[in-house]
Structures are given as C-alpha cells and as structure tokens.
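Appendix B: a complete holo record

For completeness, this appendix reproduces one full record from the ligand-bound portion of the collection. The bound molecule is zinc ion. The inputs are the chain sequence and the ligand SMILES; the output is the full three-dimensional arrangement of the complex, encoded as structure tokens. No fields have been trimmed.
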Amino acid sequence: MKININNIPDEGLKISLHKDGDWFRGLLTEKEKNDFSIEGIDVFCQAKRIRETVFIDGSLETTVAATCCRCLEATHLPVKTNFRYTFVPEEKASKQEDELSTEDLEYGYYQDDVIDLDNLIFEQVMLQIPIKVLCTDACKGLCAHCGMNINTACCNCHAEFIDERLAVLKKFSVVENDKI
Ligand SMILES: [Zn+2]
Ligand SMILES: [Zn+2]
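The structure of the chain with zinc ion bound, as generated:
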C-alpha cells in the first residue's frame, strides 16, 4: 500500500490493512522461504504530517510458521510488534538525519510525495523472526541416540547409556584389583 502524503489530513490518517502470506513469501530469498513462512499480517497505523515530515506509528500482528530448531516439529509463533517511523523526503535525507537523530525511531525516506507502507511492513516482520525458532523455551529436543522427540515420548537411551558407563567402570576396577 502506498500513501500520498498530500492525502494525509491535518487530523491524521488511520490505516488498517491486511497482507497475506503469499505477498510476504514473494519478497523472501530462496533460503528464507525454506526457513519460515508467515500467515496473514494485520496492520493498524496512523500517519501524521508536519510539513514534509510524516510520522507513522502503529502495530502489526502475524504468526510465524517455522521448524523448531531442537525437536524439528512444526511450530507457530504469534508475533506482535509496535513501530514508529519518521519519513522525510529523500532529497533532504542527509540534512534531516543530523537534526532528528534519536535512537528509538526508525527513519524512512520517500520520493515524489509517496510513502510505500509495504516496505515498512516487510522490514518490521523480518525484525520479528527469531534467529533460532523454538517450540517452547524448555524444548528438550531430540534424543541424540535414537532421534526420538523427548518432549512427547520417553526413550530408554539415557538409562542405557549410564548402564554402559557403569559397566565399563566395573570392568576397569576389576582389572585394577587383579593387578594388586
Ligand atoms: Zn521443540
Ligand atoms: Zn533415545
């Protein structure tokens, strides 16, 4: 969605829009497409304009679908974030940046009086994708021995592993005793 800044009234412009997962997918690289996908994105925001500077703040909600990096189960992470942007015309970008640099605001630049909200939405969703997706923080992952998902099933590998070690120790101590 694009906003022409001349269409922003004095009292501000309220925008609510929905983007679907396919739209988002079309913007991803091939590698990213394998790593995760997004269900629909709901965006609510408000645009205000003071002369050439446009302030956009709002929130978005979506669900990230990915594979848990420990147990490899399909995982859905609800995501909600707030954002604030200050848009200035591109030709004034360098000058304004010095004047307006505060840390909690994102900057955007527009050309020909048009702000592209789609870029903003894509950027905000990408910021919400965790580097490592976990189904839960406490995910126990897969058994390194038999590959079973330890969250949902109980394998006996751990017990057997301990038994093997004990057996080795017992044997070892027998050898030691023989020497004495
Ligand atoms: Zn998991
Ligand atoms: Zn196991």
